[in-house]
Amino acid sequence: KQWYQRRVAITAGITNNLRMSKLFAWLAVVSAATALWISAVYGPYDPTFKRQFIYPFPFVAVMLVAFVSLVTILVRVSRLITRIDASEELQKDIQEAKEELQKLGISVKAE
User: Cα(110)–Cα(88) distance, rounded to whole angstroms?
Assistant: First the structure.
């Protein structure tokens, strides 16, 4: 299996074993990150540190999620093109196999 197929299988296995939907998993991550951010905002940190690192964290997190989403969409669209080509080739192979079976006298249902 490709690395991304193993990752999807592992993620799906974890989600299925815990009976979590994708929405619930994302909400859990966002809730935990929000709780950590709020505790850091009200924590005993230097105001300069808060201004430079803690306050911009939500903006950086949204930008990171947007970037990952864009890359994921681009990768899947690029793979879709090859899947369409593969689908056409597979349909051609199926048609050739049906014709060969009919030459041998085996009836094949037409769809």
Answer: 17
Q: Tokens at residue 60, please?
A: 């950086």
Distance CA 49, CA 43 (A): 11
* Spatial contact of 62 and 48, defined as CB atoms under 8 Å apart: no
Which residues contact residue 21 at a Cβ distance below 8 angstroms, ignoring those fewer than 6 apart? 15
Q: Which residues contact 37 (CB under 8 A, 6 or more apart)?
A: 54, 57, 58
Does this model's pTM top 0.70? Answer: no
Cα angle 6, 7, 11; round to 5: 115
* Helix 22-41, helix 57-103: angle, nearest 10: 160
The string of pLDDT tens digits covering residues 31-78 is: 999 999 999 999 998 999 999 999 999 999 999 999 999 999 998 888
Q: HSE, CB side, 13 Å, CA atoms: give it for residue 83.
A: 6
